C-alpha cells in the first residue's frame, strides 16, 4: 500500500504559458521541505541575538534592583548600559529593559542623595 500526497499549490501538468496564475505557489511553505542553507545561516544569529537582548534586559532589571541596596556606584551604571543595549538590540522584554534603565538612574540618584547627606561615598543605613 502506498500513500500519495498531492501538492495543490503547483500545477506541473500544464504548459508554462497557458493561463496559470504565477502567484499560486508564492508564500506557501512546504512543511516537509528542507530550508535553504542561507535561511539556516540567517536564522541562527537572529535567535542568538534575541536571546542575548532578552538576557540583557533581565540582567539590567536585576542589577538595578540590587543596586538600590548595595554597590549602587557600580551596579547603577551597569544597569543603565545593559538596559540601553537591550533596547538597541530590540528585545522582546522592553518593559524589563526600561525598568532596568529607570532603576539604574534611581541607583545613581540614591547615591547622590546619600553622598550629599553623609558627605562621603561610603554610607551606612544604621547611622
From TrEMBL:
The chain crosses the membrane at residues 56-85, 97-117. Keywords: Membrane, Transmembrane, Transmembrane helix. Residues 15-24 have a biased composition (Basic and acidic residues). Residues 15-42 are annotated as: Disordered. This is DUF4190 domain-containing protein. It comes from Streptomyces sindenensis. The lineage of its organism: Bacteria, Bacillati, Actinomycetota, Actinomycetes, Kitasatosporales.
Amino acid at each position: 500500500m502506498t500513500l500519495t500526497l498531492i501538492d495543490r499549490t503547483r500545477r506541473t501538468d500544464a504548459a508554462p504559458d497557458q493561463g496559470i496564475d504565477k502567484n499560486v505557489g508564492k508564500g506557501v511553505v512546504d512543511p516537509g521541505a528542507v530550508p535553504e542553507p542561507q535561511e539556516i545561516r540567517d536564522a541562527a544569529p537572529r535567535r542568538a541575538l534575541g536571546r542575548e537582548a532578552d538576557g540583557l534586559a533581565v540582567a539590567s532589571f536585576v542589577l538595578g534592583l540590587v543596586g538600590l541596596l548595595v554597590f549602587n556606584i557600580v551596579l547603577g551604571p551597569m544597569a543603565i548600559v545593559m538596559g540601553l543595549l537591550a533596547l538597541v538590540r530590540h528585545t522582546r522584554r522592553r518593559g524589563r529593559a526600561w525598568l532596568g534603565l529607570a532603576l539604574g538612574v534611581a541607583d545613581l540618584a540614591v547615591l547622590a542623595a546619600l553622598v550629599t547627606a553623609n558627605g562621603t561615598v561610603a554610607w551606612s543605613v544604621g547611622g
